[in-house]
Design brief:
By secondary structure, the protein is mainly alpha-helical. It has 13 helices and no strands.
C-alpha cells in the first residue's frame, strides 16, 4: 500500500511538472498574453507584469510556487475571464460530471449486454455485434456528434442540440461520448465470457445438469466480472478528456469547452488547472479500480 501511494504521488508530481512546463513552452511571450494581448506596452508596464506573476524567478521556483498554491486550492486567476480559476471550474464541473455519469450508465448497461449476447448466442449474433462495435470504434466523436445533431436534433426535432444541463439536453452528447466506450466494453465482456466458458469448473457444472442460464450467471459472467469492471473503470477515467470534443460540438458549458477556450486564448492558468484536474481524476479512478479488483476477483487476491 505504501509503495502504491508513493507511486501515485510521484506520478502526480511528474504530471504536474510536465503540464506547467508545457504551458510555458508554448509559442509567444507569456507577458503579452498576461497583458491582454496589448501591443506597444511600456517597459515599466511589462516589468510590473513580470513582477506580479514572478516571471523573472527561476523556472523551478515558479513551478514550486504554482504547485504549492494548487495544493491549497489557489489555481490562479484567469487572464481571459478575470476571475478565479477555481470558481470557473466549480461552475462548469457539474455539467461535465453529469455528462460523464450519463454516458457511463449507457456504455456499461448496453456494452455489457451486447457482450453477453454475443458470447452466449454466438453465430450471426456474435458476428453482428463484433461488426457493429468495430464500426462504432472507427467513427470519430465529432462525426458521430454531427450525425446525431443533424438527424435527431434538426430533422426529427426529438432532442435539443445546443446548451442546457437537463437530462434531455445531455442525451445526444452522452450517446456520442458513450458510443466508442460501449464498443470497448462489449468486446471485453464478450472475450472474457468466452474464456470463462472454456474453463473446467464450467464444464463440470454443465455435466452436472445445471441449466445453461444458471451456468452463465453463476459461473461464466461472475468469473468474467473482474476484467469487465476494471475496463469500465479505466474507460470512465478517460472520459473526462473525451468531453472536450463533445462539449464543443454541442455547445455545453463544461470543463472540456473551458479547456478549448483557454488553449485558444492562451489562458495559461485555466489550461494548467483543467489539465491537472483531468490527470488527477484519471489517476484517482484507476487507483480505485486497482484496489477494488482483488475484492471482485479472489484469484487476484490469492496471487498478490
Amino acid at each position: 500500500m505504501v509503495r502504491k501511494l508513493a507511486g501515485l504521488v510521484a506520478t502526480l508530481l511528474a504530471t504536474s511538472f510536465v503540464i506547467f512546463a508545457a504551458s510555458y513552452a508554448a509559442p509567444g511571450d507569456p507577458v503579452t498574453f498576461l497583458a491582454g494581448g496589448k501591443e506597444n506596452l511600456t517597459p515599466e508596464h511589462l516589468a510590473a507584469i513580470r513582477a506580479q506573476y514572478h516571471l523573472d524567478d527561476p523556472f523551478l521556483v515558479q513551478y514550486g510556487r504554482w504547485l504549492g498554491d494548487a495544493l491549497t486550492g489557489d489555481l490562479g486567476r484567469s487572464t481571459q475571464y478575470h476571475d478565479q480559476v477555481a470558481d470557473l471550474m466549480a461552475a462548469r464541473l457539474p455539467s461535465t460530471l453529469g455528462l460523464v455519469a450519463y454516458a457511463s450508465v449507457l456504455f456499461v448497461v448496453f456494452g455489457i449486454a451486447l457482450g453477453v449476447l454475443a458470447a452466449v448466442r454466438g453465430g450471426r449474433t456474435d458476428s453482428a455485434v463484433v461488426a457493429g462495435t468495430t464500426f462504432a470504434t472507427s467513427v470519430p466523436a465529432f462525426v458521430t456528434a454531427t450525425v446525431l445533431i443533424s438527424l435527431f436534433g434538426v430533422q426529427l426535432g426529438w432532442f435539443p442540440v445546443m446548451g442546457g444541463g437537463s437530462l434531455w439536453h445531455l442525451t445526444l452528447p452522452a450517446v456520442t461520448l458513450a458510443l466508442g466506450a460501449l464498443a470497448i466494453i462489449s468486446r471485453v465482456t464478450r472475450q472474457s465470457m468466452i474464456e470463462q466458458r472454456e474453463l473446467d469448473h464450467v464444464s463440470v457444472a454443465r455435466a452436472g445438469g445445471l441449466s445453461e442460464r444458471l451456468i452463465v450467471v453463476r459461473h461464466v459472467f461472475r468469473g468474467a466480472l473482474g476484467p469487465i469492471v476494471t475496463m469500465c473503470g479505466l474507460v470512465t477515467a478517460g472520459m473526462l478528456a473525451g468531453t472536450v470534443t463533445v462539449e464543443t460540438a454541442f455547445g455545453l458549458n463544461g470543463i472540456g469547452s473551458l479547456l478549448v477556450n483557454a488553449i485558444n486564448t492562451h489562458d495559461f492558468p485555466v489550461t494548467q488547472a483543467v489539465l491537472l484536474l483531468m490527470v488527477t481524476a484519471y489517476i484517482a479512478v484507476t487507483t480505485a479500480v486497482e484496489l477494488l479488483h482483488p475484492l471482485i476477483d479472489p484469484r487476484v487476491r490469492s496471487r498478490a
